[in-house]
Amino acid sequence: MGRGKFKGKPTGRRQFSTPEEMLAGTSSRPRTFKKDEAEAEIEEDRSDEESEESSEEEESDKKKGTQGVIEIENPNMARPKTLKARDADLDKTSELSRREREEIEKQRAHERYMKLQEQGKTDQAKKDLERLALIRQQRAEAAKKREEEKAAKDQKKAEARK
After folding, report:
1. Integer Cα distance of 34 and 40 in angstroms
2. Is the dihedral of CA 63, 67, 71, 73 positive or negative?
C-alpha cells in the first residue's frame, strides 16, 4: 500500500543508522572517504618499506600478471616517437607502398602519352589530324561555294539595275 501522495523509489527506502549502531560499529553505513584515505596511507607506508628492501635485492621492474613471464614484441604497444622537422634525415628516402608506386607510374605514363599526343605520334592523334584536315578542306570548299553564290547574286542585281 502506498503512503500518501508521492510514490517511493523502486530502489527502496533510505535506512538511517541510529547513534547506538554507530557507537557499536554495527552500522551498515559505508566508511567515509577520510577513513579510507588514512588506511591507504598506512598501506603505502608499509609497501614503501617493503619495496625499499626488495629494490635493493632486485632492480628489475615489476610487471602485472604474466607480463613478467612472457615478453612480447607488439608494435602497437610501443608509442610512436615524434620526429621533429630539424631532426629529420633528408638524405634518407622512404620506401613507397605498392599503391603509391603504381599511382606515380600511372601519372608518368599519362604524361608521356600526352607528350606524344601533342607531337602527333600516337594513332589517335594521327586519326584526329586526318579528320581535322578533312573538315578544314570541307569548310574551305563551302566558303568558296558561298562566295561564288554571293558573286552570282550580286551580278544578277547589277544586271537588273541597268
Report:
1. 10
2. negative
pTM over 0.70: no
Displacement of CA 87 from its chain's centroid (Å):
25
Show Cβ contacts of residue 126 under 8 Å, excluding neighbours closer than 6 positions: 120
Residue 28 inside a domain? The answer is yes
**pLDDT per position as a tens digit, 129-156:** 999 999 999 999 999 999 999 999 999 9
Q: Name the band, by pLDDT with cuts 50, 70 and 90, for residue 108.
A: very high
Expressed as residue numbers, the domain containing 26 is 19-54
Number of domains in the chain: 2
Cell numbers linked to 132: 581535322
Show the cell assigned to 58. Answer: 632486485
| Grid cell listed for 27 | 552500522
CB 124 within 8 A of CB 117: yes
